[in-house]
Amino acid sequence: MYRSHVLVCGGTGCTSSGCPKIIEALQTEIKKAGLKEEVSVVQTGCHGLCALGPIMIVYPEATFYALVKPEDVPEIVSEHLLKGRIVNRLVYKETVTEEGIKSLNDTDFYRKQHRIALRNCGVINPENIDEYIATDGYEALGRVLTEYTPDQVIQTILDSGLRGRGGGGFPTGMKWKLAKGNDADQKYVCCNADEGDPGAFMDRSVLEGDPHVVLEAMAIAGYAIGASQGYIYVRAEYPIAVDRLKIAIAQAREYGLLGKNIFNSGFDFDIDLRLGAGAFVCGEETALMTSIEGNRGEPRPRPPFPAQKGLFEKPTILNNVETYANIPQIILHGAEWFASMGTEKSKGTKVFALGGKINNTGLVEIPMGTTLREVIDEIGGGIPNGKKFKAAQTGGPSGGCIPMEHFDIPIDYDNLIGIGSMMGSGGLIVMDEDNCMVDIAKFFLEFTVDESCGKCTPCRIGTKRLYEMLEKITNGNGTLEDLDKLEELCYYIKENALCGLGQTAPNPVLSTLRFFKDEYLSHVTDKKCPAGVCKALLSYIIDADKCKGCTLCARICPNGAIIGKVKEAHIIEQDKCIKCGACMEKCRFGAISKK
Amino acid sequence: MKTLEELKAIRESMQSQMGLRKESGEQIRVVVGMATCGIASGARPVLNALSDAVQAKGLKNVAVTQTGCIGLCQYEPIVEVMEPGKDKVTYVKMTPEKANEVIDQHLIRGQVIKKYTITEMLG
């Protein structure tokens, strides 16, 4: 029995900011202090506040230490663990109040969150099945197998109103119902863990922090549709997730929660992993299944839909990790409980990965219908350096941006589509006045050009042409006619591409054209980039009145573009300037500006 | 795993340990003085006895934590029991045996053991 549990975040974010060293130091120091029998060190999944990593929580006091360094560990052990004195300087500042330390759940970041899919992330040790069981794990599977018919399971999921969290938002229960209705000697349950949107990492966090929830939900799905085999398609770039899934599968098999005759019900179900090489197109359902079959990941035309002829031409359901993470909770608490959260057509919660120009970079889970303002200003802690919000990008390369005028829109599937964006898998990238929207569109197009599989012409050639047009505009060579052509090509690609990748690829262009047409026009007619991002359209200039001739800029310039004598005003030779901005950063007199 | 009962057995045995990670305002807090004075006079065995007993007996609403010196060094080891809505009870000169009595009588049955409290000791 331990009197204290020290939880250290072992998600990818905290791992890369140094948590393995923290754990090592903790174990050494705890041993040195003779506390080995009293204090247990537990490595958990992601807590969501990735910007503050490495994160450590000490229970029973629930003290939240942030940005911990290995050098801090001896102090935490000797002061807090041994003598019970909290090390105030390391405590997350949001939890410190005049009356003392307040609970993490009362901080702005967590207060408005409602954690269902992420409920165990950061709470349990993902490598210990017993801890998952302690938080009601596998209870839903047990109940389903002993008390429910497959039709009752499907009805519960239908009633809950759960929609696919991977982006499309198709009703999950409907998917299961269609697959159950198709008779076959073999059916499959697949899990899409190929999370390819740049900036989205909630699926990785669930797999790393609570892998058993996915296994349990897949077994429930298998029972509902009559499948005995499941596959998790996870990208090889998620090594921690892959390791924890392997451990989880082995533990579940050992406990008989996967395998033959689970809970003595006669139901057999097993799960295998398939590693993907990280192609964005493999997140598209038909391409994913083609890849599991051992072929090159290319989409196939639908129909037939996977529920009819999916993996190995058998009826198959494919759900995303976050979707699965909701299933056991729906079974345990009932469809009504789940349907009581969210908006009319989007029930439950959604996890968003906050990134870009925002203070609290990390993962948040909020009820559907929360406004963008609440997410960015309250939970996300606003925009750093007092800059002004310009837009939020949702849905990654398939989505679009939400400008200031829609700041109070309740976030759900239909509202986002209504304003030309989409939920996507939940990446939410915040942009401020220093971001150029044309450049953002170009960035996403560059990504889709790289990731287009090349099977269909509209996507393979169309996205490339879109990219070239954007490049022409950002280089200052665009014409008004180009803007019309750009829009026309966008619609052509949307209508004619084979799969979701191509059909949604023009979205970033269309939505920036819709809300930020003025920025495109400045690039085309005034040959200016208002945000000062597009290098071809800006020039650095030295104000002769302010320049003291200190020569600092001339010395830092990597291309020798600045000339001038000591104590005399300097000049930037525009034809040599590569617009790196190094001189402007270095100038102590604010004499250099960009236009 | 063949029955829900087996699952329940694992869950309950684990929950008493996981209870440590709960955060709720309703909890009874048992605080042990663990400054140098407390440790020197034997607070650690007391802390461990309390912590073990709370988990072994599955007292889900009790959190055992530590604190620093409260200034009554001659009365260490000191254990304070704080129940929401009630006056704080301070036990002094504790031992692991006395700590177990506190668990059984005070925390489980709700009877303060007067003879161990500071008011009795100070007269």
UniProtKB/TrEMBL annotation, chain A:
CDD domains: TRX_Fd_family (cd02980). The keyword Lyase does not apply. Pfam families: 2Fe-2S_thioredx, Complex1_51K, Fer4_10, NADH_4Fe-4S, SLBB. One of its GO terms (molecular function) is FMN binding. Keywords: 4Fe-4S, Iron, Iron-sulfur, Metal-binding. InterPro entries: 4Fe4S_Fe-S-bd (IPR017896), 4Fe4S_Fe_S_CS (IPR017900), NADH-UbQ_OxRdtase_51kDa_CS (IPR001949), Nuo51_FMN-bd (IPR011538), Nuo51_FMN-bd_sf (IPR037225), Nuop51_4Fe4S-bd (IPR019575), Nuop51_4Fe4S-bd_sf (IPR037207), Soluble_ligand-bd (IPR019554). Residues 538-568, 571-595 form the 4Fe-4S ferredoxin-type domain. Belongs to the complex I 51 kDa subunit family. This is NADH-quinone oxidoreductase subunit NuoF. It comes from Mobilitalea sibirica. The lineage of its organism: Bacteria, Bacillati, Bacillota, Clostridia, Lachnospirales.
TrEMBL record, chain B:
Keywords: Iron, Iron-sulfur, Metal-binding. CDD domains: TRX_Fd_family. It comes from the Bacteria. Pfam families: 2Fe-2S_thioredx. PANTHER family: NADH-QUINONE OXIDOREDUCTASE SUBUNIT F. This is (2Fe-2S) ferredoxin domain-containing protein. One of its GO terms (molecular function) is metal ion binding.
